[in-house]
Write a sequence for this structure.
Protein backbone atom coordinates (compact mmCIF):
# COMPACT_ATOMS: atom_id res chain seq x y z
CA UNK A 1 0.00 0.00 0.00
CA UNK A 2 2.80 2.43 0.95
CA UNK A 3 4.56 1.86 -2.40
CA UNK A 4 1.31 2.41 -4.29
CA UNK A 5 0.61 5.63 -2.41
CA UNK A 6 4.14 6.88 -3.10
CA UNK A 7 3.78 6.06 -6.80
CA UNK A 8 0.50 7.95 -6.88
CA UNK A 9 2.07 11.00 -5.22
CA UNK A 10 4.96 10.83 -7.67
CA UNK A 11 2.56 10.87 -10.64
CA UNK A 12 0.66 13.81 -9.19
CA UNK A 13 3.93 15.63 -8.54
CA UNK A 14 4.96 15.11 -12.16
CA UNK A 15 1.64 16.57 -13.31
CA UNK A 16 2.14 19.59 -11.06
CA UNK A 17 5.55 20.19 -12.66
CA UNK A 18 4.14 19.68 -16.17
CA UNK A 19 1.28 22.15 -15.73
CA UNK A 20 3.43 24.69 -13.89
CA UNK A 21 5.79 24.76 -16.86
CA UNK A 22 2.97 24.69 -19.41
CA UNK A 23 1.42 27.73 -17.73
CA UNK A 24 4.79 29.48 -17.91
CA UNK A 25 5.16 29.74 -14.13
CA UNK A 26 8.58 29.74 -12.54
CA UNK A 27 8.98 27.96 -9.21
CA UNK A 28 9.07 31.38 -7.50
CA UNK A 29 5.92 32.66 -9.23
CA UNK A 30 4.08 29.42 -8.52
CA UNK A 31 5.16 29.62 -4.87
CA UNK A 32 3.94 33.23 -4.62
CA UNK A 33 0.53 32.33 -6.05
CA UNK A 34 0.28 29.43 -3.64
CA UNK A 35 1.30 31.69 -0.74
CA UNK A 36 4.20 29.35 -0.01
CA UNK A 37 7.98 29.25 -0.17
CA UNK A 38 10.06 27.93 -3.06
CA UNK A 39 11.32 25.15 -0.78
CA UNK A 40 7.70 24.10 -0.20
CA UNK A 41 7.18 23.94 -3.98
CA UNK A 42 10.32 21.81 -4.33
CA UNK A 43 9.03 19.37 -1.71
CA UNK A 44 5.66 19.14 -3.44
CA UNK A 45 7.36 18.50 -6.79
CA UNK A 46 9.25 15.62 -5.21
CA UNK A 47 6.00 13.95 -4.11
CA UNK A 48 5.59 15.24 -0.56
CA UNK A 49 2.87 13.65 1.61
CA UNK A 50 0.90 16.89 1.52
CA UNK A 51 -0.20 15.86 -1.97
CA UNK A 52 -2.56 13.43 -0.20
CA UNK A 53 -4.54 16.38 1.20
CA UNK A 54 -7.58 17.43 -0.79
CA UNK A 55 -7.24 21.06 0.29
CA UNK A 56 -3.67 21.24 -1.08
CA UNK A 57 -4.66 19.59 -4.36
CA UNK A 58 -7.62 21.96 -4.78
CA UNK A 59 -5.39 25.00 -4.24
CA UNK A 60 -2.79 23.72 -6.72
CA UNK A 61 -5.48 23.00 -9.31
CA UNK A 62 -6.93 26.49 -8.80
CA UNK A 63 -3.55 28.18 -9.29
CA UNK A 64 -2.80 26.07 -12.38
CA UNK A 65 -6.35 26.63 -13.74
CA UNK A 66 -7.07 22.96 -14.24
CA UNK A 67 -9.57 20.49 -12.82
CA UNK A 68 -8.47 18.62 -9.73
CA UNK A 69 -9.18 15.42 -11.70
CA UNK A 70 -6.41 16.43 -14.09
CA UNK A 71 -4.07 15.97 -11.13
CA UNK A 72 -5.47 12.80 -9.59
CA UNK A 73 -7.01 10.80 -12.46
CA UNK A 74 -4.56 9.22 -14.92
CA UNK A 75 -6.92 9.10 -17.92
CA UNK A 76 -8.23 12.61 -17.33
CA UNK A 77 -4.64 13.84 -16.97
CA UNK A 78 -3.66 12.34 -20.32
CA UNK A 79 -6.73 13.68 -22.14
CA UNK A 80 -6.28 17.20 -20.78
CA UNK A 81 -2.57 17.31 -21.56
CA UNK A 82 -3.16 16.41 -25.21
CA UNK A 83 -5.29 19.39 -26.20
CA UNK A 84 -5.36 23.17 -26.09
CA UNK A 85 -7.43 24.00 -23.02
CA UNK A 86 -9.77 26.92 -22.26
CA UNK A 87 -7.08 28.83 -20.36
CA UNK A 88 -4.83 28.78 -23.43
CA UNK A 89 -7.68 29.81 -25.73
CA UNK A 90 -8.33 32.70 -23.34
CA UNK A 91 -4.65 33.67 -23.59
CA UNK A 92 -4.95 33.77 -27.38
CA UNK A 93 -8.13 35.84 -27.07
CA UNK A 94 -6.38 38.23 -24.70
CA UNK A 95 -3.51 38.61 -27.17
CA UNK A 96 -5.97 39.39 -29.96
CA UNK A 97 -7.44 42.09 -27.72
CA UNK A 98 -4.07 43.70 -26.88
CA UNK A 99 -4.64 47.00 -28.66
CA UNK A 100 -1.50 48.43 -27.09
CA UNK A 101 0.50 46.23 -29.45
CA UNK A 102 -1.91 46.27 -32.40
CA UNK A 103 -1.79 50.02 -32.86
CA UNK A 104 0.44 52.85 -31.67
CA UNK A 105 -2.66 54.84 -30.66
CA UNK A 106 -2.94 52.91 -27.38
CA UNK A 107 0.77 52.30 -26.97
CA UNK A 108 3.06 54.20 -24.64
CA UNK A 109 6.68 53.20 -25.00
CA UNK A 110 7.97 50.41 -27.19
CA UNK A 111 9.24 47.11 -25.81
CA UNK A 112 12.23 47.40 -23.53
CA UNK A 113 14.26 44.98 -25.65
CA UNK A 114 14.95 45.15 -29.38
CA UNK A 115 12.84 42.46 -31.13
CA UNK A 116 14.97 39.40 -31.90
CA UNK A 117 13.86 38.63 -35.47
CA UNK A 118 15.99 35.48 -35.97
CA UNK A 119 14.56 34.00 -32.79
CA UNK A 120 11.01 34.98 -33.75
CA UNK A 121 11.47 33.38 -37.17
CA UNK A 122 12.73 30.22 -35.50
CA UNK A 123 9.72 30.15 -33.15
CA UNK A 124 7.28 30.67 -36.03
CA UNK A 125 8.85 27.80 -37.99
CA UNK A 126 8.69 25.62 -34.87
CA UNK A 127 4.99 26.47 -34.47
CA UNK A 128 4.27 25.48 -38.08
CA UNK A 129 6.04 22.16 -37.59
CA UNK A 130 4.00 21.57 -34.41
CA UNK A 131 0.78 22.35 -36.29
CA UNK A 132 1.55 20.00 -39.16
CA UNK A 133 2.38 17.29 -36.62
CA UNK A 134 -0.96 17.98 -34.82
CA UNK A 135 0.89 18.84 -31.58
CA UNK A 136 -1.82 21.18 -30.33
CA UNK A 137 -0.66 20.97 -26.71
CA UNK A 138 2.60 22.57 -27.89
CA UNK A 139 0.77 25.35 -29.72
CA UNK A 140 -1.57 26.25 -26.87
CA UNK A 141 1.01 27.88 -24.57
CA UNK A 142 2.99 29.32 -27.50
CA UNK A 143 0.60 31.15 -29.80
CA UNK A 144 -0.58 33.94 -27.49
CA UNK A 145 2.97 34.90 -26.53
CA UNK A 146 4.17 34.65 -30.12
CA UNK A 147 1.37 36.93 -31.30
CA UNK A 148 2.28 39.64 -28.79
CA UNK A 149 5.98 39.36 -29.68
CA UNK A 150 5.44 39.61 -33.44
CA UNK A 151 2.89 42.43 -32.99
CA UNK A 152 5.49 44.41 -31.04
CA UNK A 153 8.13 43.72 -33.68
CA UNK A 154 5.78 44.74 -36.50
CA UNK A 155 4.80 47.95 -34.72
CA UNK A 156 8.28 49.09 -33.74
CA UNK A 157 10.60 48.02 -36.55
CA UNK A 158 11.07 49.81 -39.85
CA UNK A 159 12.66 49.16 -43.23
CA UNK A 160 13.67 45.63 -44.17
CA UNK A 161 13.40 44.47 -40.55
CA UNK A 162 9.89 45.89 -40.40
CA UNK A 163 8.87 44.00 -43.55
CA UNK A 164 10.24 40.77 -42.08
CA UNK A 165 8.28 41.43 -38.88
CA UNK A 166 5.07 42.03 -40.89
CA UNK A 167 5.53 38.68 -42.64
CA UNK A 168 6.11 36.87 -39.33
CA UNK A 169 3.06 38.53 -37.79
CA UNK A 170 0.95 37.42 -40.74
CA UNK A 171 2.14 33.86 -40.33
CA UNK A 172 1.29 33.88 -36.62
CA UNK A 173 -2.22 35.08 -37.43
CA UNK A 174 -2.48 32.22 -39.93
CA UNK A 175 -1.31 29.71 -37.34
CA UNK A 176 -3.84 30.99 -34.82
CA UNK A 177 -6.59 30.92 -37.45
CA UNK A 178 -5.86 27.32 -38.44
CA UNK A 179 -5.52 26.13 -34.83
CA UNK A 180 -8.73 27.80 -33.66
CA UNK A 181 -10.53 26.33 -36.68
CA UNK A 182 -9.48 22.84 -35.63
CA UNK A 183 -10.76 23.47 -32.10
CA UNK A 184 -14.11 24.87 -33.21
CA UNK A 185 -13.57 28.45 -31.95
CA UNK A 186 -14.88 30.00 -35.16
CA UNK A 187 -15.59 33.55 -33.95
CA UNK A 188 -11.99 33.94 -32.79
CA UNK A 189 -10.85 32.22 -35.98
CA UNK A 190 -12.65 34.87 -37.99
CA UNK A 191 -11.06 37.70 -35.99
CA UNK A 192 -7.55 36.27 -36.40
CA UNK A 193 -8.10 35.64 -40.13
CA UNK A 194 -9.31 39.19 -40.73
CA UNK A 195 -6.33 40.62 -38.81
CA UNK A 196 -4.04 38.33 -40.79
CA UNK A 197 -5.23 39.71 -44.12
CA UNK A 198 -4.79 43.28 -42.89
CA UNK A 199 -1.24 42.49 -41.76
CA UNK A 200 -0.51 40.73 -45.05
CA UNK A 201 -1.64 43.68 -47.14
CA UNK A 202 0.92 45.87 -45.37
CA UNK A 203 3.64 43.70 -46.89
CA UNK A 204 2.38 44.36 -50.46
CA UNK A 205 3.57 40.83 -51.21
CA UNK A 206 1.16 38.70 -53.26
CA UNK A 207 2.51 35.46 -51.78
CA UNK A 208 1.98 36.62 -48.20
CA UNK A 209 -1.48 37.98 -49.08
CA UNK A 210 -2.49 34.66 -50.68
CA UNK A 211 -1.45 32.73 -47.57
CA UNK A 212 -3.66 34.95 -45.43
CA UNK A 213 -6.49 34.94 -47.98
CA UNK A 214 -7.19 31.22 -47.99
CA UNK A 215 -7.36 31.21 -44.17
CA UNK A 216 -9.91 34.02 -44.39
CA UNK A 217 -11.85 31.91 -46.90
CA UNK A 218 -12.07 29.07 -44.35
CA UNK A 219 -13.05 31.45 -41.55
CA UNK A 220 -15.86 32.88 -43.68
CA UNK A 221 -17.14 29.40 -44.45
CA UNK A 222 -16.95 28.27 -40.85
CA UNK A 223 -19.17 31.15 -39.73
CA UNK A 224 -22.08 30.05 -41.94
CA UNK A 225 -20.77 31.99 -44.91
CA UNK A 226 -20.15 29.33 -47.58
CA UNK A 227 -21.26 31.68 -50.36
CA UNK A 228 -19.00 34.45 -49.11
CA UNK A 229 -16.13 31.93 -48.79
CA UNK A 230 -16.46 30.85 -52.43
CA UNK A 231 -16.65 34.46 -53.58
CA UNK A 232 -13.59 35.38 -51.50
CA UNK A 233 -11.62 32.42 -52.85
CA UNK A 234 -12.38 33.16 -56.48
CA UNK A 235 -11.91 36.93 -56.09
CA UNK A 236 -8.56 36.42 -54.36
CA UNK A 237 -7.43 33.94 -56.99
CA UNK A 238 -8.44 36.32 -59.79
CA UNK A 239 -6.73 39.30 -58.15
CA UNK A 240 -3.54 37.44 -57.32
CA UNK A 241 -3.34 35.24 -60.43
CA UNK A 242 -0.92 37.50 -62.38
CA UNK A 243 1.59 37.29 -59.53
CA UNK A 244 0.99 33.65 -58.58
CA UNK A 245 0.28 31.80 -61.84
CA UNK A 246 3.95 31.65 -62.76
CA UNK A 247 6.64 29.02 -63.27
CA UNK A 248 7.95 29.18 -59.70
CA UNK A 249 6.43 26.45 -57.49
CA UNK A 250 5.89 28.49 -54.30
CA UNK A 251 3.37 31.00 -55.70
CA UNK A 252 1.71 28.21 -57.69
CA UNK A 253 1.09 26.25 -54.50
CA UNK A 254 -0.70 29.16 -52.85
CA UNK A 255 -2.89 29.83 -55.89
CA UNK A 256 -3.77 26.16 -56.09
CA UNK A 257 -4.68 26.08 -52.42
CA UNK A 258 -7.04 29.02 -52.88
CA UNK A 259 -8.86 27.02 -55.56
CA UNK A 260 -9.03 23.99 -53.27
CA UNK A 261 -10.66 25.98 -50.46
CA UNK A 262 -13.10 27.51 -52.91
CA UNK A 263 -14.03 24.05 -54.19
CA UNK A 264 -14.80 22.69 -50.72
CA UNK A 265 -16.99 25.65 -49.82
CA UNK A 266 -18.75 25.43 -53.20
CA UNK A 267 -19.58 21.86 -52.22
CA UNK A 268 -21.11 23.15 -48.98
CA UNK A 269 -23.28 25.31 -51.25
CA UNK A 270 -24.36 22.19 -53.16
CA UNK A 271 -22.85 23.57 -56.37
CA UNK A 272 -21.18 20.56 -58.08
CA UNK A 273 -20.43 22.46 -61.30
CA UNK A 274 -18.41 25.10 -59.46
CA UNK A 275 -16.72 22.36 -57.46
CA UNK A 276 -15.64 20.69 -60.69
CA UNK A 277 -14.31 23.94 -62.17
CA UNK A 278 -12.34 24.96 -59.07
CA UNK A 279 -10.89 21.49 -58.54
CA UNK A 280 -9.95 21.49 -62.21
CA UNK A 281 -7.96 24.70 -61.77
CA UNK A 282 -6.21 23.26 -58.72
CA UNK A 283 -5.47 20.03 -60.60
CA UNK A 284 -3.94 22.00 -63.48
CA UNK A 285 -1.58 23.80 -61.10
CA UNK A 286 -0.71 20.58 -59.23
CA UNK A 287 0.15 18.89 -62.53
CA UNK A 288 2.48 21.77 -63.33
CA UNK A 289 4.31 21.14 -60.03
CA UNK A 290 4.66 17.49 -60.94
CA UNK A 291 4.63 16.30 -57.34
CA UNK A 292 3.66 17.08 -53.76
CA UNK A 293 5.33 19.98 -52.00
CA UNK A 294 4.89 21.89 -48.76
CA UNK A 295 5.46 25.47 -49.88
CA UNK A 296 4.35 27.94 -47.22
CA UNK A 297 3.01 25.01 -45.19
CA UNK A 298 0.25 24.24 -47.73
CA UNK A 299 1.19 20.59 -48.52
CA UNK A 300 -0.08 21.43 -52.01
CA UNK A 301 0.27 18.97 -54.87
CA UNK A 302 -1.66 16.20 -56.66
CA UNK A 303 -2.25 14.23 -53.46
CA UNK A 304 -3.70 17.19 -51.58
CA UNK A 305 -5.97 17.88 -54.56
CA UNK A 306 -7.30 14.33 -54.18
CA UNK A 307 -7.72 14.87 -50.43
CA UNK A 308 -9.81 17.97 -51.08
CA UNK A 309 -11.80 16.11 -53.73
CA UNK A 310 -12.78 13.66 -50.99
CA UNK A 311 -13.73 16.59 -48.73
CA UNK A 312 -15.81 18.16 -51.51
CA UNK A 313 -17.71 14.94 -52.25
CA UNK A 314 -18.31 14.55 -48.52
CA UNK A 315 -19.76 18.07 -48.33
CA UNK A 316 -21.97 17.19 -51.32
CA UNK A 317 -23.04 14.09 -49.32
CA UNK A 318 -21.87 11.89 -52.20
CA UNK A 319 -20.20 9.37 -49.92
CA UNK A 320 -19.67 6.63 -52.58
CA UNK A 321 -17.62 9.04 -54.74
CA UNK A 322 -15.67 10.23 -51.69
CA UNK A 323 -14.80 6.65 -50.75
CA UNK A 324 -13.92 5.76 -54.35
CA UNK A 325 -11.46 8.66 -54.65
CA UNK A 326 -9.91 7.74 -51.29
CA UNK A 327 -9.46 4.09 -52.30
CA UNK A 328 -7.75 5.07 -55.56
CA UNK A 329 -5.22 7.43 -53.96
CA UNK A 330 -1.52 6.68 -54.13
CA UNK A 331 -0.78 5.50 -50.59
CA UNK A 332 2.95 6.00 -50.89
CA UNK A 333 2.50 9.67 -51.80
CA UNK A 334 -0.13 10.08 -49.09
CA UNK A 335 2.28 8.72 -46.49
CA UNK A 336 4.79 11.46 -47.37
CA UNK A 337 2.41 14.29 -46.40
CA UNK A 338 2.43 15.90 -42.93
CA UNK A 339 0.62 13.93 -40.24
CA UNK A 340 -2.03 16.63 -39.87
CA UNK A 341 -3.04 16.25 -43.54
CA UNK A 342 -3.09 12.45 -43.41
CA UNK A 343 -5.01 12.23 -40.15
CA UNK A 344 -7.51 14.87 -41.29
CA UNK A 345 -8.02 12.84 -44.49
CA UNK A 346 -8.63 9.66 -42.48
CA UNK A 347 -11.29 11.48 -40.49
CA UNK A 348 -12.99 12.67 -43.70
CA UNK A 349 -13.00 9.12 -45.06
CA UNK A 350 -14.45 7.92 -41.74
CA UNK A 351 -17.19 10.54 -42.03
CA UNK A 352 -17.95 9.37 -45.57
CA UNK A 353 -18.28 5.75 -44.45
CA UNK A 354 -20.47 6.85 -41.52
CA UNK A 355 -22.69 8.73 -43.99
CA UNK A 356 -23.13 5.43 -45.84
CA UNK A 357 -23.91 3.57 -42.58
CA UNK A 358 -20.68 1.56 -42.91
CA UNK A 359 -19.78 1.83 -39.26
CA UNK A 360 -16.93 -0.68 -39.05
CA UNK A 361 -15.11 0.98 -41.94
CA UNK A 362 -15.63 4.37 -40.29
CA UNK A 363 -14.20 3.10 -37.01
CA UNK A 364 -11.21 1.57 -38.81
CA UNK A 365 -10.32 4.93 -40.37
CA UNK A 366 -10.79 6.76 -37.08
CA UNK A 367 -8.39 4.31 -35.44
CA UNK A 368 -5.94 4.92 -38.29
CA UNK A 369 -6.21 8.68 -37.70
CA UNK A 370 -5.75 8.16 -33.97
CA UNK A 371 -2.62 6.10 -34.60
CA UNK A 372 -1.20 8.79 -36.91
CA UNK A 373 -2.04 11.87 -34.87
CA UNK A 374 -4.06 11.18 -31.69
CA UNK A 375 -4.77 14.86 -31.04
CA UNK A 376 -6.46 15.16 -34.44
CA UNK A 377 -9.07 12.72 -33.13
CA UNK A 378 -9.22 13.53 -29.43
CA UNK A 379 -9.08 17.34 -29.52
CA UNK A 380 -11.33 18.26 -32.45
CA UNK A 381 -15.06 18.72 -31.85
CA UNK A 382 -15.96 17.40 -35.32
CA UNK A 383 -14.18 14.11 -34.63
CA UNK A 384 -15.44 13.78 -31.08
CA UNK A 385 -18.99 14.29 -32.39
CA UNK A 386 -18.47 11.57 -35.00
CA UNK A 387 -17.23 9.09 -32.40
CA UNK A 388 -20.16 9.99 -30.15
CA UNK A 389 -22.67 9.50 -32.98
CA UNK A 390 -21.20 6.13 -33.94
CA UNK A 391 -21.28 4.98 -30.32
CA UNK A 392 -24.79 6.27 -29.72
CA UNK A 393 -26.12 4.55 -32.87
CA UNK A 394 -25.08 1.18 -31.38
CA UNK A 395 -24.43 -0.15 -34.89
CA UNK A 396 -21.02 -1.22 -33.63
CA UNK A 397 -19.82 -2.58 -30.33
CA UNK A 398 -16.26 -3.12 -31.55
CA UNK A 399 -13.39 -2.92 -29.13
CA UNK A 400 -11.85 -0.21 -31.32
CA UNK A 401 -14.86 2.07 -30.98
CA UNK A 402 -15.02 1.50 -27.23
CA UNK A 403 -11.31 2.35 -27.05
CA UNK A 404 -11.91 5.65 -28.83
CA UNK A 405 -14.84 6.48 -26.55
CA UNK A 406 -12.66 5.91 -23.47
CA UNK A 407 -9.70 7.83 -24.85
CA UNK A 408 -11.83 10.82 -25.77
CA UNK A 409 -13.63 10.70 -22.43
CA UNK A 410 -17.16 10.29 -23.70
CA UNK A 411 -19.79 8.69 -21.44
CA UNK A 412 -19.86 4.94 -22.13
Amino acid sequence: MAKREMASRTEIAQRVVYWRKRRGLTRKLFADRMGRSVSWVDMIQRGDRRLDRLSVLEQIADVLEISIYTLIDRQQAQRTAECVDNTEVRTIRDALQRYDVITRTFSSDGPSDEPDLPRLRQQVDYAWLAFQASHYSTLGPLLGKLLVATQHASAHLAGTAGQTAHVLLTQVYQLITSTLRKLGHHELEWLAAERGVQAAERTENAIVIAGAAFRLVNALGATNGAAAAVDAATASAHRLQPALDVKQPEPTSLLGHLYLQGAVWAAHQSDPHRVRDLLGEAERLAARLGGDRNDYWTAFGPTNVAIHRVSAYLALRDWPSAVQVAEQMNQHRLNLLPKERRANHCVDVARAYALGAKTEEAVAHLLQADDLAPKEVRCRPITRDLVHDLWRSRRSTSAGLRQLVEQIGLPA
User: Anything to note?
Assistant: The mean pLDDT is 92. The chain is about 75% helix and 0% strand. The chain has four domains: 2-79, 87-202, 205-336, 338-412. The domain at 205-336 is CATH 1.25.40 (Serine Threonine Protein Phosphatase 5, Tetratricopeptide repeat).
